[in-house]
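The pair is listed for reference:
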Amino acid sequence: MYSRALMRATRFAGFALLATAIVCAAGCEGLDGRNRNRKGNKLYRETKFVEAAAEYEKALTEVKDPTVDYNLGLAYSKITKPGYEKPIFLEVTGSSACSTIPGVVTVSKKVCLRADDKRFLDCNSKKDCPADSYECTETSLCTLTAPQLADMACSHFLVWVNAQAPDDEIKAKLKGVKVKLEEAKAKGDKQQVDNYGKQVDELESKDNTRKLMTQLWDDSNQYAKATAYWEGLLAQRKDDADIMLVLGGIALKADDWRKSIGWYRKVAESAQDQENKLAAYTYIGRVARAKLASKTLGPADSIELADFGIGALQKANDLAPKNAANVGLMGNIFGLRSLAHGASLAGGIDRATQQDLLKVQGVLNAEAKKAREGQDPAGPKGSVAPAVKGTETPAPKTGG
């Protein structure tokens, strides 16, 4: 048996060598892709986001790994400029980035050029440039728009998101890890606190990436794409309050206050606990006050919106009658509604109601202050304010 196998190996030595070469080539490509991912990470940390994106794009042609997609999404999210309407200059035509990043458009213009400066500042002559080391040169540059870059980032983030564990599985693990984290904090075990803290961050990264996608779509006025994505999630997770709150926020940014309030009302109606109901009604009140204060609505729309806000805050007051902030918020909305009524009896009644509610707010604040007397308002000595979640600059992932 062994000799026959040896003979077969000898007879097909040429084929075996070719097969080995193919396997090696495939393996080398994967290795090269991972090296490019690491190179992209280095460039990202150096804030060379365009060059990093080019390396990640090349890596994806050699290895299919959601980690690389995540990193590419991060790079594109750093290149885009929220609300920017002009083309965003990426690199000089002919560069690796211009050849690799898809969908670029080439433009020619005079800009200040220096090898280490990628701002490509407009100029008419050298004197318009920041220093003598620059040259004012007619240059061909590759560009993309802010919406294109935002959408490209979201497309790659979505590949990574879809490759993660199901939401229910993550939520169950997260609940368990948070319990262990609190136990470690109670014991003062710093090592375990750090360990479980990192696990929490990792388990929350799927949801945080979705939020980053939403922000990118919102900042580039692509509200329909953000809405379609979250409505797709809601179809899978019926009556999920968190998803409906996000949809309400997207609608508000899109300046559709009716739709925004509609989502918040659904949250209030479906909420099983008082806390979420109260939060939803308060959101409606805040939406109403903010929009009314902008003075962009006509009298009829202003009165309709004020009615929504007042009605929601009255329900909130039923749930939490000692909530001074909501009482004051209701008073503010009555005052804003009085402007829509103008010099009329209805306007006078609204102004009087506003004054009454503000007096009630003052009484509630005084009661709350009295209840706090004797307590240390500064909290435990040596305490440090917690970092706001999600404000940190995301780092590229090292896998891939």
